[in-house]
Amino acid sequence: MRFGVNYTPSEGWFHHWLDFDLDSVRADLDAVAALGLDHIRVFPLWPYFQPNRTLIRPRAVEQLVALADAAAERGLDVHVDGLQGHLSSFDFLPAWTRTWHRRNLFTDPDVTEGQAAYLRTLAAALADRPGFLGMTVGNEVNQFAAGPHPDPDRITADEAERWLRRMLAACAEGAPGRLHLHASYDAAWYQDDQPFTPGHSARLGDLTAVHSWVFNGTAQRHGRTSVPAEHHAAYLVELSKAWAGEPYRPVWLQEVGAPAPLVPAEHAAAFAEATIRNALDCPDLWGITWWCSHDVSRDLADFPQLEYGLGVFTNDRAPKDIARVLAEAARRPHASPAPRTTALAVPGDPGHRSRCAPGGPVFDAFFRLVADGARPTTVLDTRAADKDHLAARGITEVVTPDQVLPTPHGGTRS
């Protein structure tokens, strides 16, 4: 069981790559390692590393390797996201893909060749580092492919799959045998017209990544102490299993955080404790990586307010109460959870995945089951009668959303 943080530098945020200070990075990582965590997720900013399609800056790559080495010296493994892409409401796309050079990020042959070369280069530079876990293609790159992005590069689901397979192959060419995956924000699970589908997330790459944020309507509808809010991360972990090709495919809770004001700062630790406890009750969970390590400095302008206070450390590296929660979770032994024997049937057609979103019948039924003491998982409606599939997953009962009736306890903490 892995516990880590998404590394947000205390000085300069991700713009620190422009003024890279290894001593500052080391001080940040000292604080992370002192919690007893075992890994960080790292974000090179794509335009800073590949400002021209045929220029991948050697000095930037050297700095990424130096960061990985500094982490290893402190007992921290490193997983690297390549195509940033999108972070904390800002897009980071190189000029050779925008405005006068506007080309589709996912289908233009020159762009995709440049992307593949970039991912291959980063992976190869890190391949011999013992603490290097692998590559994530990019952070929530699916947000560029559909609304609500204001200027999407629209593609079909087949085009999304071809792009993902090529990018994952590039990572594997650079660093064979490492954990390579891709990461979508929750539109992949909830939005009917999102071309990056649940099947892509659950079947492509070496493990499934889910990103859990309760500002998606969950906390607004139900409140921060509700069953849906405190079990939302566990829900996404279990929802992903409906589409997995293998019964025991590992799932990484790669991003999860406590966003204010929906989760006020004084309640962040309690929210984290509940979220982690409930996620740990999911079989086949690979790890939990909290967003994020350090707060965004108030000296930096124009971030959404919730982004400034998500760190487990302040800007001067002082631990918050949430740091204690992570440290305690990392120290405790964790037994493998028992199989979840009750499965809720979910639509196999990705054109109906909004039924799984907050306010949808699958979402509501899942949390009614949880509130009444069940430990549900999910299964595609197209597999609900497949006895071999159910047996392989330890499922003994399948229910549909309309069979899960409201109860006096449904939707609130029991």
Order of helices and strands, N to C? EHEHHEEEHEHEHHEHHHEHEHEHEHE
Overall number of strands: 13
Strand content: 5-15%
Second-tier CATH architecture of the largest domain: Alpha-Beta Barrel
The number of domains is 2
Q: Would you tell me the overall average pLDDT?
A: 96
Helix content: 25-40%
Which stretches of 5+ consecutive residues score pLDDT under 50?
A: 408-414
Mind telling me the C-alpha Rg?
A: 21 Å
Oligomer: single chain
- Molecular shape: globular
The CATH superfamily name of the largest domain is Glycosidases
Which sequence of strands runs across the widest sheet?
7-6-3-2-1-10-9-8
Write down the CATH topology of the largest domain.
TIM Barrel
Please give the largest β-sheet.
8 strands, parallel
Instruction: Compute the number of helices.
Output: 14
GO molecular function: hydrolase activity
Organism: Streptomyces incarnatus
InterPro entries: GH
Region (Disordered): 331-352
